[in-house]
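Side project, low priority. Logging it here so it doesn't get lost.
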Amino acid sequence: MLTPLVRRIIAGVLIAVVAGAGAWLLMTWEGGERRAPAEEREPGRPAVAIMQSELEHTRGGHPAWWLSIEEIEISGGGRAVAASGLREGLVYDEGRPVVRISAGRATYRARDKSFEVTGGVKVVSDKGAIVTTGKVQWLPATQTLHCPGEVTMRAEGVTVRAENLDLIVPENVARTAGRVQLRTEHGQLTGRNLQYDLDTHAYTLQSIQAVFTIDEAREELGRLR
C-alpha cells in the first residue's frame, strides 16, 4: 500500500507532466495549425525574418551607422542579424554621414555592435574616394572600415591596389599593411605600408620602387612626406 507521502509525490509528478504537455501544445499549435519545433525547421533557416527594415546604431548620442535592407534574418537569440538586399548603408562621424556603402548582404553582431557587408561591396567617402572589394567589416572600437581581402581604392587621380585596406573614419585616413601598388597619371609606385590622407591626398609609402621617367619620378616623389 502506498503511504501518504508517496501518493503526494506521484500526484506532483503527474501535475508537472500535464502542465508541460499543455505548454508544448500552446507552443506548437496556433490557430489550429501545428508549427514545427526548432529541431524540425529546415537547416539553416532563420528563427525570424523581417521584410524591408533598417538597422541603426548610435554612439555618444549621435548616429554611428545605419543600414537600409530588404530582409532581416534573426538567429541565435538575436545575437546575429543577417540582412539581404542591402539598399544603402551610411557611416557617420560626429553625427554627419561621411561614408556611403552598397553591397549584396550585411550581417550585424549585437555583441559588439559591429557589422560586415559582402558581395560586390562599394564604399564611397564624402572626400571622393571610392573603394571596391568583396568584404568590409565595421570595427566599432576604432571606427574603422576594414577590407580584409583584395581591394581597389580610387581617389584624386590615384589608384591603389592592395590585399587589405583600413579606412579610419575619424582620422579620414586610408592605410594598408603589406605590399601595395599605387598608380598615378605619371606612372606606378610599389611599396609597403601606405598611408593616404583623404583630405589632402598626400601619402607616405615605404620600400618604394618606381616606374617613371626621371622628371616624372622627381615630381611624384616630391609629393611623398
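Brief comment: Helices lie at 4-28, 214-221.
Revisit when time allows.
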